[in-house]
Design a protein that fits this description.
By secondary structure, this protein is an all-alpha fold. The chain has one domain. It contains five helices and no strands. The longest helix is centred in the N-terminal third of the chain and has 38 residues.
């Protein structure tokens, strides 16, 4: 009886973790869509990023923070997956963590470049 109860609790824990992983992936998808198609439209419209970035410093900061937050959420998903399936599929779990970590590094470079464009745009406007 205790073994069955342990399996039920283990299954419930895996199900709960799976739901959190799914919710995190959906949240990163929605935030990414909002960032790309709602927040960034004013930056790239008309004369382009170099001219428009100085007029939207808060949007640029929000885009960078949301982008890094979504990448950190994906890193948390990778850690949760590794914790649950890492022993069964160690190569897959490690590869996924490495890919997500590389994505976070690339995103950090991308958003630091976007923040740098704001400074360049302010110098260009004056």
């Amino acid at each position: 009886m205790a073994l069955e109860r342990g399996k039920v609790m283990e299954h419930g824990n895996a199900l709960r973790t799976g739901r959190w992983i799914g919710a995190a992936i959906l949240a990163t998808f929605v935030i990414g869509m909002v960032s790309n198609f709602k927040l960034q439209t004013d930056l790239f419209a008309g004369d382009g990023l170099l001219v428009n970035a100085a007029a939207h410093p808060l949007k640029i900061g929000l885009i960078a923070v949301l982008g890094l937050a979504t990448n950190l959420a994906l890193l948390a998903v990778a850690a949760a997956l590794t914790a649950h399936v890492g022993r069964a599929y160690p190569v897959h779990a490690t590869t996924y963590c490495l890919l997500v970590g590389a994505g976070l590094a690339i995103a950090a470079i991308e958003y630091s470049t976007l923040l740098a464009f704001r400074t360049v745009s302010e110098q260009f406007a004056s």
